[in-house]
Design brief:
The protein is α/β, with parallel strands linked by helices. It contains nine helices and eleven strands.
């Protein structure tokens, strides 16, 4: 009788271990994707692919949420409604991609700012309303906070990185360059605060405003390498 009882107890313990193992596996899926979401800088430089090549602990890359006109309001909405994103012949549910991701980089905010800021290429001058820019930046900070929290509702283990901006003008006079740096400083400050408040990592790329990294406002090869190295370093940082 004792032997039967002992045998039955062993079976129950083994069943419990197997069940527990399955439960752990189910609740903790292996995260093997790097996902890049962003606007014109991601489109123009395709830095996502080069960052992916440098990350040794992921084996899948996705940048389906990559569009020149992306702003923070649109990105937040995509994630909130768990939208299906269509790109060419491919379509993906954004929540499924987030759920598989180990790293997610987000770069939005420039289109938010540019909805009010106009740059006259002939005069090489910025035109904007200070109060409107302040409201835009406050809204951007709140959106970044909400975007990161929405992502974490789907995947609590993902590392989220918010990428800043550099001033993409290399031929301004000193006065306009100071104005531009102040504007982009406000933009980056909003992104930084939204990231920090939500527990995300802010990647400061403002050093790329240096003329040594620019050609006609676009990143040269050294600038692109520097951008990738800054993002990769932030991904790897514990």
């Amino acid at each position: 009788m004792k032997k039967m009882f002992s045998f039955g107890l062993v079976i129950l313990v083994l069943i419990g271990i197997v069940y527990g193992f399955k439960k752990i596996n189910k609740s903790s899926p292996k995260l093997e994707m790097y996902m890049a979401m962003g606007d014109s800088l991601l489109v123009a430089t395709s830095y996502g692919e080069n960052v992916y090549k440098e990350l040794e602990d992921v084996n899948e890359f996705n940048d389906i949420v990559k569009r020149s006109n992306l702003d923070s309001n649109s990105l937040l909405r995509f994630i909130e409604v768990k939208a299906t994103i269509v790109k060419g012949n491919n379509s993906e549910k954004i929540s499924n991609l987030i759920g598989k991701s180990k790293y997610i980089t987000i770069q939005v905010g420039l289109n938010d700012l540019n909805s009010n800021v106009r740059f006259n290429k002939v005069e090489q001058k910025f035109y904007y309303d200070v109060e409107v820019v302040e409201r835009i930046c406050a809204n951007l900070q709140e959106n970044i906070y909400n975007i990161v929290n929405e992502i974490r509702e789907i995947n609590k283990d993902v590392k989220v990185l918010v990428i800043g901006y550099y001033l993409p003008f290399s031929s301004l006079d000193d006065n306009e360059k100071a104005i531009g740096l102040e504007l982009y400083g406000e933009l980056n400050s909003s992104l930084r605060l939204g990231a920090y408040d939500s527990g995300a990592v802010f990647v400061d790329i403002s050093d790329l405003s240096n003329e040594m990294y620019l050609v006609d406002g676009f990143l040269n090869e050294e600038g692109k390498k520097k951008l990738v190295s800054l993002i990769v370093a932030s991904c790897k940082q514990k």
